Amino acid sequence: xxxxxxxxxxxxxxxxxxxxxxxxxxxxxxxxxxxxxxxxxxxxxxxxxxxxxxxxxxxxxxxxxxxxxxxxxxxxxxxxxxxxxxxxxxxxxxxxxxxxxxxxxxxxxxxxxxxxxxxxxxxxxxxxxxxxxxxxxxxxxxxxxxxxxxxxxxxxxxxxxxxxxxxxxxxxxxxxxxxxxxxxxxxxxxxxxxxxxxxxxxxxxxxxxxxxxxxxxxxxxxxxxxxxxxxxxxxxxxxxxxxxxxxxxxxxxxxxxxxxxxxxxxxxxxxxxxxxxxxxxxxxxxxxxxxxxxxxxxxxxxxxxxxxxxxxxxxxxxxxxxxxxxxxxxxxxxxxxxxxxxxxxxxxxxxxxxxxxxxxxxxxxxxxxxxxxxxxxxxxxxxxxxxxxxxxxxxxxxxxxxxxxxxxxxxxxxxxxxxxxxxxxxxxxxxxxxxxxxxxxxxxxxxxxxxxxxxxxxxxxxxxxxxxxxxxxxxxxxxxxxxxxxxxxxxxxxxxxxxxxxxxxxxxxxxxxxxxxxxxxxxxxxxxxxxxxxxxxxxxxxxxxxxxxxxxxxxxxxxxxxxxxxxxxxxxxxxxxxxxxxxxxxxxxxxxxxxxxxxxxxxxxxxxxxxxxxxxxxxxxxxxxxxxxxxxxxxxxxxxxxxxxxxxxxxxxxxxxxxxxxxxxxxxxxxxxxxxxxxxxxxxxxxxxxxxxxxxxxxxxxxxxxxxxxxxxxxxxxxxxxxxxxxxxxxxxxxxxxxxxxxxxxxxxxxxxxxxxxxxxxxxxxxxxxxxxxxxxxxxxxxxxxxxxxxxxxxxxxxxxxxxxxxxxxxxxxxxxxxxxxxxxxxxxxxxxxxxxxxxxxxxxxxxxxxxxxxxxxxxxxxxxxxxxxxxxxxxxxxxxxxxxxxxxxxxxxxxxxxxxxxxxxxxxxxxxxxxxxxxxxxxxxxxxxxxxxxxxxxxxxxxxxxxxxxxxxxxxxxxxxxxxxxxxxxxxxxxxxxxxxxxxxxxxxxxxxxxxxxxxxxxxxxxxxxxxxxxxxx
Length: 1019
Prior knowledge:
The chain is mainly beta. It contains 12 helices and 55 strands. The strands form 12 sheets. It has a 22-stranded antiparallel barrel. It is globular and about 105 Å long.
């Protein structure tokens, strides 16, 4: 036997054992937990690696890890998708508990920009992104409430305080003078149908404020909201980007192999933030007597008149219609990610009561976001599916009620000495005034909306640099609104006829009752194909390019039917009015509607980067719309943007580098289009055959204009971004200028010879918006336990019209004797929504109004704010977090149509209530309530809009509950304003002939103060 050959493996084995023993002695075990810095939730699947080695592990479902590393290891690198990397020193410790911060605040943050994404440092256009940690908190019905006040250039104005009410969103001012002014909403890549609900349809009382088009989305499913503000950012959406684009990205699957369950529950209490200071019964009678005397009656006759209106009660009618609203919300989600499979399933239930009785919103939403990689990760299949069922109940409110007012108008002016009920239990019904409690009892108005939004996509990685993506998007919505009016409603105060194409149906509500049922169905289909090329050459030249094709069709159909007359009389207070659509004797149809249009497009974008120093973006989209005639069907919309990272220059590092860690200069120019407000068949002559109950009738309904062109907006902007050396201060400053031309407008036909009175044209003239945007973030205090961050944004807007052939009036004013009155005009040299009315100069010695310039109309300011701002203070101490948000708007005026119509001294002579200021004021009781600056008030305000306090409990590992956070939030907690109405932040629709209005307050649904308590639990 050869001993030498035998000894060799024995010695090698011995050495191996000794080395292993030595190595084991030279290792150590590090344990720890990785959590989200915002809410303390565990991050499952986070990577933990010893720096400079391949030794590593991943965190478990509870965020914990255990890793053996060489004893000489000084640093661990912890990373997780969507979060910034953190390096932890473990040279003197075997424990590493790490909080990762979302990259929303980091330079490497990925921003969705439409048909792709970019790192924030590479973005050239004006893009603002708000993530979940910055969202407004509390009772949230729609995503725009998350965004309000949080980003420069974006003004969100709620129409009313009704749950789910629409908001007016303007990005860098408003430019359209007819129809659509809203931005384009894109949910996970699918552009939405505008509308989809019957919220703007008429109930039995008149037209109502529309519901929010985003109401079907669960705000808890949203990861981030990105706003594309200029043409260089929005041009990829071409003809639909003229009013800006809002991209909503929902949460995707994550949480590791075990998955993560989250449950959240909230309860909210809402009350009226402000009320009108109406007279009580005693003071009302005194003021009514004085008003009669001032009106010429002798004291004895005045006293007798007051006795005639004293019905012995002392009723606060505001108490009768308002309530403390109790709302609740529940959310459940499960997120999972493992080996190329991602999933997130969620469901929510909302029950929001309105502070006006009989109003509210109930909503069920479900969502599934699924992803699967196949063929060595070359193919990725994704599905984002949303279903929602929303049920709205409406109080009898309308935007166009007459002098008697709808519910709120009736409550404000009704005689406070009137009782609610007669002795026999029937409702007290005084003459032609309306009993609000009777209105609440005898009107029933509700709808439901079912909506499906589906986005199916497949992405194939052809080469490491080239991918192909196919998208199918489906957006379907069905809504039905049914309204009943009880036959016991009084004849003097209710009723009226229904007119359908010139035919009056003489069927008042009293004794007949009434029902209306309206159905709306909308559909949209999106098909897209596009290629993405992304490659860096020689570490110098980087190219990211997108090219594709898009097709989207839109269709809507409307039907309506109404009935009257009951087989079984309903008279006594105890009689039951059966709310059944089939129980009426007579029926007739509203004129039905059908609409369909198509949009097909080709688009491309190239992002070029040189040495991570110079960034150039070129975008072009060509859209073809079926709304236009053959001559002008296609519009092409190009855009360019440039960005210079100054600190990448050698000379700048030695100068600016001493102060800044990042300093960028940007410039952009581009064109965008618009055709959303244009009728689908505007280029065609149309006639319609319908049957309203008297047999088929054919009418010519539209004069077509085959020469229509695309409305266009040209945008120019420059900007600067910087971050200081220590990273505590960052800021963005932008100057922008937008010019809108070829404005689409529904105008009178020339000469009046056409079969119809109006048709669509391109109106001469321009609308300009220009201003500044400033956004600042500052880490005021940065300590071990206590931190204080401040974020502020300010936007200025200067709006101006030039070149209009004639002024255009809008803004209908409601009130007795005000039929045909208006208060706004669009005219050259002034902003859109300029107020036009006589200037009030007080009362003369007899209490009659005095006006300047012979009571001629004068231009007296605008409804558009000239400045708006937001200020957020975030405080954290240990596991406590406090956020305080204020917003401010100034430089505009609000027309108090409520005061104009209802709150006049003359109302007292007619036994109608008023505020103390009016009742004790100098006005003559016979002074007419003419439109004037008497009712035009500054709309400036500062609002403590949102406050949120939360505490993240310290949960030990191994427990069933992984995270637990409790919070309390408040909304609309304080309002500082000189406006005499309930709230200056209001926009009741008072349009005329389709020309939108702005800044009207007419018996608005008040904005509540809301306190919310909630808890979020992770399992």
